[in-house]
Specification:
Blueprint (H helix, E strand, L loop, with lengths): L3 E5 L3 H13 L3 E5 L2 H7 L5 E7 L7 H11 L5 E5 L4 H9 L4 E4 L4 H19 L13 E3 L2 E3 L6 H13 L6 E4 L6 H10 L8 E5 L5 H9 L16 H4 L4 E5 L6 H13 L1 E3 L6 E3 L3 E6 L3 H7 L4 H7 L2 E4 L10 H16 L5 E2 L1 H9 L5 H15 L4 E2 L24 H15 L4 H8 L3 H13 L10
Parallel strand pairs: 1-2, 1-3, 3-4, 4-5, 8-13, 8-14, 9-10, 10-13, 15-16
Antiparallel strand pairs: 6-7, 11-12
Helix pairs in contact: 2-3, 6-7, 13-15, 16-17, 17-18
């Protein structure tokens, strides 16, 4: 990006403050006090970015945006707005604005805008034909070492993009079906960044009720609510200096969405029941399998939060779209699971590989990992054969189609859920991901069935 930036703002104090921050960051600055002056001053060959106030005499920020984009579609334009005009700024982003900052803004907000712009520039400029460099094992989670296994082009493109943006502070939104490897990429984003020595904190936003999630993310003070016997640090505090991974971000309530937006913009928040404003420096990585654009239309997800999260979107391919990776993934999971129990890794027979490749894997890589783990733990032979993989069959509910004739949809749903729970070892989180629902939804259904006498008391515990 060109190191000269144009600032357009009729507020001299705001213009001077922004100019000083940009100069200290190593940029040259030109200034304009009106929309007309900004149009006259803008030079696509000189200015690498434009900051413009939304409300100015002789042409507002939207006029400046349109003028700049008509002369240089690639020059990023950042709108400066008052709090009440955020909706206008969001609409402007749909018309080509790069970002927006809300008055009164601080140094960190400007730095984050610059980082996001740099990340987008790298994303756009990178030649996708470049080979992906080999990387070492890069991260570790509760189940062992994580590696970006696979050679599928779509998967490698995701890994390559993660490598490019990891050193930046850009917010990343990982999108894709459950079980496609979003946590792996989040771990790599942390491990390949300059925050790798800091904490990597994970939170599943669908696993808790909204009131508990607020306490989980932001912490609470002693006595804030019944049961709050001591002060508790939230996930943002625990992740300070590192990376916070928010899985299933589409499940959070509007109230928490508002708090998240504030943290992303300012790095500030208060604990539940607290008065002290806390400040953190955290790189936020989010993941979802929901259609956030549709949720915006339905009014259940904030559009301004979406733009903050969607700085660098990464779409992960489902396993059925990268079946060429199944043999390597199967071998990887066999070796990892064998090491856990101290046995020699068994081979996977060609016939078993055919069965694995033929399956459509609705639970994606996570489902494959579970299947391979179960085979390694239960088999006593040196070669795994098709019979060792009871789940590796064409997708569907066990039983002949005629078995369901005369049954209600509710009965069929209950049978499917119970069968999935049985196959995942009664792991509600894994079963929910395979079924495409939240763990909370699954728990609520099981509770209702138990209360109605439709389940044994120990089922789905």
């Amino acid at each position: 990006m060109n190191r000269r930036i144009l600032i357009a703002d009729d507020d001299a104090l705001s213009r001077d403050f922004l100019g000083e921050v940009l100069r200290k960051a190593g940029y040259e600055v030109d200034e304009a006090a009106t929309g007309r002056e900004a149009k006259e001053a803008f030079d696509p060959n000189r200015h690498g970015m434009v900051f413009t106030d939304l409300r100015m005499p002789e042409g507002n920020g939207l006029d400046v945006l349109s003028w700049v984009k008509s002369r240089s579609s690639v020059t990023p334009v950042v709108l400066i707005t008052a709090f009440g005009a955020v909706e206008v700024a969001v609409k402007a982003m749909r018309n080509g604005a790069e970002d927006f900052i809300v008055k009164p803004f601080g140094i960190e907000q400007i730095e984050m805008v610059l980082e996001r712009a740099k990340a987008r520039e790298r994303y756009s400029a990178q030649d996708e034909s470049e080979p992906t460099p080999a990387r070492p094992v890069a991260a570790e989670n509760d189940t062992g070492v994580i590696e970006p296994v696979g050679t599928d082009p779509a998967w490698l493109a995701c890994v390559k993009l993660v490598e490019r943006i990891a050193p930046t502070r850009a917010t990343v939104l990982l999108r894709g079906e459950s079980g496609t490897g979003k946590e792996i990429l989040a771990s790599l984003l942390h491990a390949w960044s300059d925050r790798q020595s800091g904490p990597f904190v994970r939170t599943n936003c669908a696993a808790l009720q909204p009131t508990l999630l607020s306490s989980e993310l932001f912490g609470h003070e002693k006595g804030a609510f019944t049961g709050a016997d001591e002060t508790k640090e939230g996930r943002f505090e625990l992740a300070n200096g590192g990376t916070l991974f928010l899985d299933e971000i589409g499940e959070v309530s509007p109230e928490i969405q508002s708090k998240l937006l504030r943290v992303l913009e300012t790095g500030e928040f208060e604990r539940v029941g607290g008065r002290e404003t806390l400040k953190v420096r955290v790189r936020v990585v989010c993941a979802t399998n929901r259609n956030l654009e549709r949720m915006i239309e339905e009014g259940t997800f904030r559009e301004d939060l979406f733009y903050r999260l969607n700085v660098v979107p990464i779409e992960l391919p489902p396993l059925r779209a990268r079946k060429g990776d199944i043999p390597d993934l199967a071998k990887h999971f066999v070796e990892r699971c064998s090491a856990e129990i101290g046995r020699t890794p068994p081979e996977v027979s060609p016939e078993a590989i055919e069965v694995l490749v033929a399956h459509d894997w609705p639970g994606n890589v996570r489902e494959l990992a579970n299947v391979m783990q179960r085979a390694v733990f239960t088999s006593t032979t040196e070669v795994l054969r098709p019979d060792d993989f009871p789940l590796a069959r064409p997708r569907g509910v066990s039983g002949a189609p005629d078995d369901f004739v005369g049954q209600s949809i509710a009965d069929v749903e209950r049978r499917l859920i119970l069968a999935t729970l049985q196959r995942t070892g009664n792991n509600k989180t894994e079963a929910a991901k395979i079924l495409g629902v939240t763990a909370r939804t699954l728990s609520n259904k099981i509770k209702l069935w138990k209360e109605g006498g439709l389940l044994p008391l120990r089922a789905g515990r």
